[in-house]
Batch of 3 targets.
Target 1
Amino acid sequence: MVKLCGIRISNYHNKVRLAALEKGIAFEENDQCAPSRDEAHLERSAMGKVPYLEVNGETLTESQAICEYLEEAYPEKPLYPRDPWQRAKVRELISYLELHVELVSRRLHKQAFYGGAVSDESKAQVERELTRGLKALGRLAKFAPMLAGPELTLADVCAFVHLPLVATVTRLVLGRDLVEELLPQAKPYLKALGERPAFQRVAADRKAATDARRKK
Ligand SMILES: N[C@@H](CCC(=O)N[C@@H](CS)C(=O)NCC(=O)O)C(=O)O
């Protein structure tokens, strides 16, 4: 059986977990596997990050590569449309969400979550790039009712784990919720998605893991 390793406060861990749950895959989880630069961890995950997937004694990193593997290995309940063009459009949305939105806002994490400080210059740069990324996402996203059209896809899984985090980070560090301002369709869409059982479960487990970490 495949084993997912990571921590439930991680949006990328939750992306894979949610995809696996939606697809109805039987999998094991080690949710106590934190990012680390220790040799033992680097042997499993060369960048020291989470998540990674263990399969037959080998490991696979990068959430998108993991999700693509799960999609091909467990095709019964797909998270991509059949049509090649529509599949590519789902991947395009995921790239916008991750490269032009999530990764940009991540530069604010050290101030939002780890007691560090981000310079005013960096904040202004992040704000400019995020504005561009969120507006671009708004042009591509259909919200009909899902991000790529009528069916649930991996793009919705990504939106559900990434957009609330981006909203929180911009609120904490920039004093503005850029998601709410620039992508107002996101709020009702995320609320509706959150009513699906697997989404509800991952959101509740993320909250429990976050609360447990605060108490430490
Ligand atoms: N591109 C990676 C990103 C994974 C990632 O950034 N994971 C974070 C946790 S959410 C991490 O391990 N951070 C520790 C680090 O950057 O060293 C993926 O899609 O899996």
Note: The pocket of glutathione is lined by residues 10-12, 35, 48-50, 62-64 (CB under 6 Å).
Target 2
Amino acid sequence: MSLKLPGSFKKPIPGQFLMVRIKGRNEPFLGRPFSVYSFAQDGRGVYVEILYKIVGKGTMCLSGQKKGALLEIHGPYGTPFDMDKYPRNVILVSGGIGVAPVTYLASQYRHYLPAAPHLEMVCYHGVTGSRRLLGLERLKEFCSDVFISSDDGTVGYHGSVVEMFEKDVLSYNPEDTMIYACGPRPMLKKLAGLGEVPRFRCQALLEEHMACGLGACLGCAIRVRDGEGRGAYRRVCTDGPVFNIQDIEWDY
Ligand SMILES: Cc1cc2nc3c(=O)[nH]c(=O)nc-3n(C[C@H](O)[C@H](O)[C@H](O)COP(=O)(O)OP(=O)(O)OC[C@H]3O[C@@H](n4cnc5c(N)ncnc54)[C@H](O)[C@@H]3O)c2cc1C
Ligand code: FES
């Protein structure tokens, strides 16, 4: 979905999200969080794309909006991905609709880091099946390689994206490689559990349920390990949605 916003709308940093609400509707009452898929700007305004999957009332309602409909959009919110100033290897691991924020991240690395001519960006993207494969062409614009997996074997590697990535992980040097991941929780948990991953800097974007999106309701709290290794709670909407993957307590 393409959104036209006022020129004053702040440019989102990759990893940040927008709260989208259908104007004038009380059902669903609360906005829904969506990652930024693309951002552009000209003299007439700001243009943002989101990529969404219909899972319930809010997304169903969104899909019924006609061209020109008015939406209520707040943001950008949240703590973004850490982007390296002089990155060498960037690995993106995404599952399903998690392709949206990693594509925006890839676009920003590619266009705004001319100081990193040696940047190698590779994406491992998993889908349930070929019908769910979206945004491949755009990913290929930014990444030197895009590896696809599918659960049902209808496209690419037959199996999970994490299994596919595991086969290559030893070929990357943890010293100069940053991993960014977004996808369903089980996928991220599996990635966090790979023996090699703690040697890398690896950040994950969590697509948890949210209510206020502003840090007020605590509805999005997750359990993490803090800097001293103690258990603690963090709000996905303000402390996240991006976290160091090793800090997250997946079984809580
Ligand atoms: C930071 C962030 C970025 C996101 N980016 C995107 C994006 O780019 N594209 C996209 O399609 N979605 C994204 N999501 C998820 C999206 O916000 C939810 O899918 C959406 O809120 C669902 O609203 P709904 O009213 O359609 O579903 P609801 O009616 O609220 O729920 C329908 C069903 O889906 C389940 N469900 C709802 N939300 C989630 C969730 N977050 N995780 C697991 N199960 C859920 C519910 O338990 C219920 O069974 C993001 C979430 C976060 C927190
Ligand atoms: S959604 Fe309300 S505190 Fe995060």
Note: The chain has five helices and 15 strands.
Target 3
Amino acid sequence: MAKKIYERPVIKKISGGVPGKFNIPKRNYIDEIDGHSVQELMDEYGSPVYVVSEKTIVETYRKAHQAFATRYPKVQFAWSYKTNYLDAVCKVYHREGSWAEVVSGFEFDKALNNGVPGSHIIFNGPGKSEEDLKKAIRHKALIHVDHFDELYLIMKIAAQSDVKPRLAIRINMDTGIYPRWDRFGFNYENGEAWNAINRILLSDKLELAGLHTHIGTYIMTANAYGVAASKLANLAVRIEKKFNHVIKYIDMGGGFASQNTLKGAYLPGRDTTPSFDEFAEAISNAIINSDIKPANLPVLFLETGRALIDDAGYLLGKVLANKRLADGRRSTILNIGLNLLFTSLWYQHDIYPGKETSFHTENTVLYGPLCMNIDIIRESIEFPLMNPGDPVVIKRIGAYNMTQWLQFIDLRPKVIMIDTEKKVHIIRENETNATFQSIERVPEYLR
Ligand SMILES: Cc1ncc(COP(=O)(O)O)c(C=O)c1O
């Protein structure tokens, strides 16, 4: 039998295993994902390793789609590439029926490579180059204009093109969420959005296909979407009245909060996040109850990112060491750093032992392995004492980490996906020194 590890005595109310008012508390650990042992996944694919559960992607997507499709007749999701643009992940969303929402030429090409027809790509973002715009126009993509300079550039391109650009404008507005996101798109309240709409509709070289907003990110009030959808619906009605022009779609962007917990939040995200049904209710009611004529009801686009993928991602790693800080607090060093878990800057991630442990927990600081003071994964977590080498699992990391990760100090590990039949596939290889040597150049005089 392995030698038991020494645990420093601490005085603490014992609740583990003792029935409480609501239940018998369970030991908190995750030792398997979709039928695969956490330890065995790391033995085979390395540690750390990212795991994506296709089953969770599909279940979450279908739940979200159902919430909207049962309340509104024409719904179309467009997968927000920046949230997670690994091809295998995108392909699952496209297979489920999602279009693509991209914000750069790089993401646009990725979507084309993933087999998405240009006409099913929504092109957002404030930084589209002339070359990007020409490509998007050629492919008949839906271009969401961010500012007047972009609109003038599109007009210039359109003047020399046989293809009529299909446009929407991004609109920012007061929805009761503060601080307001007013840096993207045209403002609703000050009349800028109406001005942009007029300019587009007065040009016979441009098509105004839709209206778009993305009111912010990690939004915890469904009502804010109701306010936003009403404002867009009002614009659609005004456009029809003045120009006799019917808007084909209203795009409500992304931003639904996932069940992660924000730093400083009083309650865990899983207790406070509105459900897809609540978001769908607020949005569809606002459009259905507007003055838009039933025959002209626009398609409702959703660019939901984090709320669709966060739960499907796990990051597996291990304990490297334990030590006491000068003030007596316990700290544990993991082999997972901020470079691999960018979202730990704003979330208190759910972190679990990857195997059964003792009921005893102690307030612990979880550090990453980087030689940088900012490399903190959790400032404070009740965690059992674990030995170097013991597995840990970080849950709900599917959004933004596999795109905002940094090649900093160390190389990025493999990403694997467990398919719905429980087969494991490598969907991104780990980096090696050769990966970087292939793009670095040393000038002749330094060789
Ligand atoms: C235009 C746009 N659409 C969709 C998204 C996805 O947002 P989220 O992941 O919060 O749903 C973003 C993210 O910032 C965005 O900028």
Note: The chain has a mean pLDDT of 95.
